[in-house]
Amino acid sequence: MPSRRGTRRPAGLDRSVGMKPTAVLTGASRGIGAAVLESLVEDGHHCLVIGRTEPETIGAAVDFMAAELSDRATVAALPAEVMSYLERRGGPAAVLVNNAGGGYPCPADVLDPETAAAEVTLNLLAPMMLVRAVLPGMIAAGAGTIVNVASTAERPGVPYLHAYSASKSGLVAYTQSLAAEVAPKGIRANCVCPGAVATEMATTGRAELARLHGLAPGGYEAEMARRTGLDRLLDPREVAAAVRWLCSAGSGAVNGQTINVCGTLSMR
C-alpha cells in the first residue's frame, strides 16, 4: 500500500486570469532544492513541493505534499495525486523540476536488491511518474519546462556509486528521449548535472567514499574540491542558477541538453 501522504494547505479552485504559474518541485527542504525553490518563488511561481521533509521556505506561494519518493507504491500513486492538485489549482504546471535524489556508496558485491531498487525508484522512476502527471496539462497548453537534476557521476564511472550512477545515467537518457517526443508540442526537457556540491547529504556520502578508498577523513572531499578547478566545492545556489535559467524564457532554444555545473570536474 502507498505510504500516507497529505498536501499542506491545498489550493482551492483558482481560475483567475492573474493566477501565478504553477511549478512542481521535488526535494526542496535543503541544499540545491531549497535554492531552486527560492528562485522559483522569486520568479513568480506558485510551488508545489513534494518530498519527505517540509521546506523551511513556506508561505502563501508554497504548498507541500509529503511523499517518500524512494517507495515504489508511493511513486505509483503520485500521478493521480499531482493531477488532482493541479485541477484544484485550475491550470497546468508551467514548470517541473525533478531535484530529489540520492544514494549511498557501497561495494558492488554487497549491494542488495532493496537498496538498488530504492535508489532507482528515487532517481529515475519518480521523475518519470511526475512527468506523467504534468505532461497532459503541458501538452494542452502547448508549453512547459521540465528540468531533471542528474549528476556528473552518471558519466566517468565512479567506484561504489553503482545504483546511483546507473539511475542518474538513465535519467539523462530519459530526458533526451522525452525532449525528442515533446519538442513539437512546445515543451522543453533538459538535465542539469551538478558535480561536487557543498550539501549535507553529499558531504555524508563523500565521507563514506573516503573510507572505502582508504583515505583520511575529508580526503575524498578535498580531492573533489581540487578537481573542480576552483579549489572549493560548489555552492548549491550555483546549481540552482542553472536550473533557474533553464526554467526561463532566455533558454527557449535549449532542449534535450545536459548542462554540467561542476567547474572542470567533468568536461563531457
TrEMBL record:
Entry keyword annotation includes rRNA-binding: no
Protein name (Swiss-Prot/TrEMBL): SDR family NAD(P)-dependent oxidoreductase
Alphabetical list of Pfam families matching this protein: adh_short
Key words of the record: Oxidoreductase
Organism in which the protein naturally occurs: Nocardia terpenica
Protein family per UniProt: Belongs to the short-chain dehydrogenases/reductases (SDR) family.
The UniProt record lists the keyword Oxidoreductase: yes
MF annotations from Gene Ontology: oxidoreductase activity, acting on the CH-OH group of donors, NAD or NADP as acceptor
Gene3D superfamilies in the cross-refs: NAD(P)-binding Rossmann-like Domain
